[in-house]
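Intended use. Records like the one below are meant for learning the mapping from a protein sequence to its folded structure. Do not use them to infer anything beyond what is encoded.
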Amino acid sequence: MKINQYFLELKDSYLFSTIAKKAAAHIEANPNAQTLRLGIGDVTRPLAPVAIAAMTAAVADMGVAATFKGYGPEQGYPFLRDVIQNYYVGKDVTLAADEIFVGDGAKSDIGNILDLFAKENNVIIPDPVYPAYLDANIMAGRNVYFIDGNEENGFLPMPNALDVKPDIIYMCSPNNPTGSVYTREQLKIWVDYAIENSAIILFDAAYECFITDPSLPTSIFEIEGARKCAIEIASMSKMAGFTGVRCGYTIVPHELNFDGGNINKMWNRRQTTKFNGVSYIVQRGAEAVFTPKGIEQCKENIDAYMANAQIIAQTMKDLNIWHVGGKNAPYVWLKCPNNLSSWDFFDFLLEKANIVGTPGAGFGAKGEGYFRLSAFNSKENVTEAMRRIKEVL
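Structure written out for the chain above:
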């Protein structure tokens, strides 16, 4: 029996598990300190009341023979696919219901979608970006190339920096960790580039709900030509606070034809073979989120997080610290002061201010020297954390 040797090429410790261990050790050593967490991107506000009511009713459905549900459709129940379809109408994007596949979160589909693509493909990943993109491809033994984000390009790299023919291109907008958002014009350049190279874009839209600027796109499919080259992977974790509930969806247009295969049909075949679908109870809660009342209630939470992001961004401005994000994303990406490395600044904030953040180096080599602060906390805690940062800096 042989193992997948590519797993041995992964780094021993995942970014967020390392942060959790360091934070736990600090809390144990300083039990009386109020340690504030502005690190991992986990939501803190409760679910929308309409989602709770819908899931409660769905639980009752499961206790009655007439409404009991066993295995559901692997692609998602029609009632949820229909409301997602209508949600995209609000973006002026027309989708067929069978182009929408309900899953248990964006992270899963980001890895699972790779089942459709040959090992020999060249993979392009922005640096810095969400670590799962890299790790999922290392596990599969693919050639990975990085396109660099930096202060000069606002951490929004463009294809003119590429020196290898791409096959699979990862994009994340708003970006995690930087909070930078591509414009329509920039995305059009990427779409045209992918079509020219017969490449596919895997577009991570997990944070689209935080975009408030109407001039900025919230879906890759708002861009002409994207249906020929893009898959969009979306999440309800941040939009609806479903990090602990687990639901997301992936959009695979019918027009995606590569190397003799139709990607929509291939993804449907993959899901029906390896996935039993998201639970009926969760999907009923998700359906409620996409109602007008649900969107309104979720927006209250989103607005609260964005108010926190603005507090963080204003603090960086007051301290004359270079930063991006905080306007159309719940993250603020800042340059570490005093030329500290990202892990040194992590230790500094933890020890001097009892604040947990996220070192940029964990998101890629180009993240070294930078740091991510998250708005996912209460206003009181964010305000106190910024007071402490001003005090120690």
